[in-house]
Specification:
With 491 residues, this protein is α/β, with parallel strands linked by helices. The strands form five sheets. Strands 1, 2, 3, 4, 8, 13 and 14 form a seven-stranded parallel beta sheet that branches. The protein has a four-stranded antiparallel beta sheet with strand order 6-5-7-9.
Length: 491
């Protein structure tokens, strides 16, 4: 049993490339695991409460519920357009999630992990989060993500006793640092969290030095659109208990808990929300007596022409815009290969078009059409799959285990190029002119067909549409090709 999650998308706006990157990385992993015979649960969803949603709805003349219904549909559609294989989609405005969050609150309160107190601290409305004094000083009083000054707030809230859990969280992160990804994935222990890449774990360990108790409610006068705190009509449950709990409420916790899927095998998140998933989320789980997630896979940001994407700069590119022009596989290919899995990446239309025409069309698409056309021309398609192939997938498979997807795709692409080189070196079109060379030509085409099919199996998690077409062309009973180009070149 494998369980992978993505961060749930906040619904004050439409989907962007960062959301799509979450879905893509999770889908690559999920598809790979299914190909290995695993049962996989893949959950995505939407984070629908809070101040920013209510504010945006008011600006548009809508009720918050109307806005989240409208935007949740956009995220469901994005997953479908990307060919994401998610099995579940959770919405935090659902009645089941609300009820289960309140049950979680009651459990934490009954165990003595929650208290009420007056609080004064630095707050970022964009993050909907309080920040420590050291974080505020380090960033010179300005949120590094939203570029807005932190605001000093004083109010009476409920708090989660982080101090009770910090030693265990620290120990879990330190243990995870000493483990390989493969060890973490296969471990039966529940006292560790493996953060990928390792340097992100070190960032969190530094943060824990100055981690205060965490505010988990806001006065209803400040945040009315949200889940009410049990037995306190004046307080709204804050984002941490509400949003973070989706990973287990989506499994039915606590009333219908599908415990066979917990702990999560991998949780995919952006680097901007790591602190919440590597500190606050483990505290909630420990407070509930639940196991910690095994792996947090943390990706970076995608810039546009070297600059942060921003509506004010007019440089935002939407996933829909790319897929409408080039298709889902092309989108998946660029962001899987040309955006490092665990680092920042950059997008420009020129880079994308170069990758599409130079790699997808010229290398993979051309390889498939060349071999299929030669099989039809020289042997009437009677080139059946053999029992072996010449490609070595060991490197790419090892990289997949390490969650190094961009490097794995690079290794697979090396095999694509090798097949093209084999064709260029052997010159089958010359062999076809000599009847004595026909048996050798047939053997060559058998090797090429077998290798293409083997490559397509490795490419399947990345390019599901293309690999399905390749399987239909190169069958166990021969080549069936109607001339369709996998990736037609663009002008």
């Amino acid at each position: 049993m494998k369980y992978i999650t993505t961060a749930i998308a906040y619904l004050n706006g439409a989907p962007h490339v960062g959301h799509a990157l979450d879905y893509l990385l999770a889908d690559i992993w999920a598809r790979r695991q299914r190909n290995l015979g695993e049962e996989v649960r893949f959950q995505a969803g939407t984070d629908e409460h809070g101040q920013k949603v209510a504010k945006k709805a008011a600006e548009l003349g809508l009720e918050p519920a109307e806005l989240v219904d409208k935007n949740a549909k956009l995220f469901r559609e994005l997953l479908q357009k990307m060919n994401a294989s998610n099995t579940n989609f959770i919405r935090t405005s659902s009645e089941a999630h609300k009820r289960r969050c309140q049950d979680i609150w009651r459990k934490l309160a009954a165990a003595g992990h929650i208290y009420k107190s007056a609080y004064e601290g630095w707050y970022c409305e964009g993050c909907e989060s309080f920040f420590t004094n050291s974080e505020v000083e380090e960033n010179h009083g300005v949120c590094p993500i939203h570029h807005q000054p932190f605001v000093k707030l004083k109010e009476e809230n409920y708090f989660l006793k982080m101090s009770e859990f910090l030693p265990r969280i620290r120990a879990a992160l330190e243990k995870g640092l000493k483990m390989s990804v493969e060890e973490a994935a296969n471990s039966a222990d529940s006292d560790f969290i493996k953060i990928v890449p390792d340097f992100r774990a070190k960032e969190i360990l530094n943060l824990l030095e100055d981690m205060p108790d965490v505010s988990i409610s806001r006065p209803k006068t400040q945040v009315a659109w949200g889940i009410s705190v049990p037995d306190d009509a004046e307080q709204t449950m804050y984002v941490w208990i509400d949003a973070l709990s989706n990973y287990i409420t989506g499994l039915g916790y606590p009333d219908e808990f599908e415990v066979r899927f917990w702990p999560a095998s991998v949780q995919v998140i952006g680097k901007d929300i790591l602190r919440f998933h590597a500190a606050i989320w483990p505290a909630i789980l420990l407070g509930l007596g639940l196991k910690l997630p095994k792996i947090l896979l943390v990706h970076g940001f995608v810039s546009m022409n070297g600059e942060k994407m921003s509506k004010s700069l007019g440089n935002v590119v939407s996933p829909d815009e790319i897929m409408e022009k080039y298709g889902a596989d092309a989108f998946r290919y660029y962001f899987a290969r040309h955006v490092p899995t665990v680092d920042d990446g950059d997008f420009t239309w020129k880079k994308f078009e170069n990758a599409y025409n130079g790699e997808l069309a010229n290398e993979l698409g051309n390889l498939v059409s060349r071999v299929a056309n030669m099989a039809n021309k020289y042997f009437d398609g009677k080139i059946a799959l053999s029992s072996g192939c010449a490609i070595n997938a060991k490197k790419s498979q090892e990289l997949m285990v390490k969650l190094q997807f961009s490097e794995a795709l690079e290794a697979i692409w090396g095999q694509v190029r090798q097949q093209n080189k084999l064709i260029d070196d052997k010159k089958p079109w010359k062999m076809a002119k000599n009847d004595e060379k026909k048996p050798e030509l047939q053997k060559l085409l058998v090797v090429l067909v077998q290798n293409i099919v083997a490559i397509s199996e490795e490419l399947d998690p990345f390019l599901p549409e293309a690999t399905e077409k390749i399987r239909k062309i190169f069958t166990p009973h021969g080549v069936k090709y109607d001339g369709e180009i996998l990736f037609p070149k663009t002008a």
